[in-house]
Amino acid sequence: MDPKLLDILACPLCKGPLVQNRDKTELWCRADGLAFPIRDGIPVMLESEARPLDADERLDG
Ligand SMILES: [Zn+2]
């Protein structure tokens, strides 16, 4: 994913910063503990599509 695109993306809930996960399939908001999927290179910034981060993931990276 384009790093510049990541720069302008913010969490739809808290407007905080997002981080890409290691295999670049999700964008994580640590503040909310949510992972937003990236489908075909397009981030899906919908709370209804997000999954909760587990405890390990919240501490990861
Ligand atoms: Zn958030």
From TrEMBL:
GO CC terms, sorted: cytosol
Pfam annotation, one family: Trm112p
InterPro entries listed in its UniProt record: Trm112-like
Listed HAMAP family: UPF0434
Family assignment from sequence similarity: Belongs to the UPF0434 family.
Protein name: UPF0434 protein C2846_02870
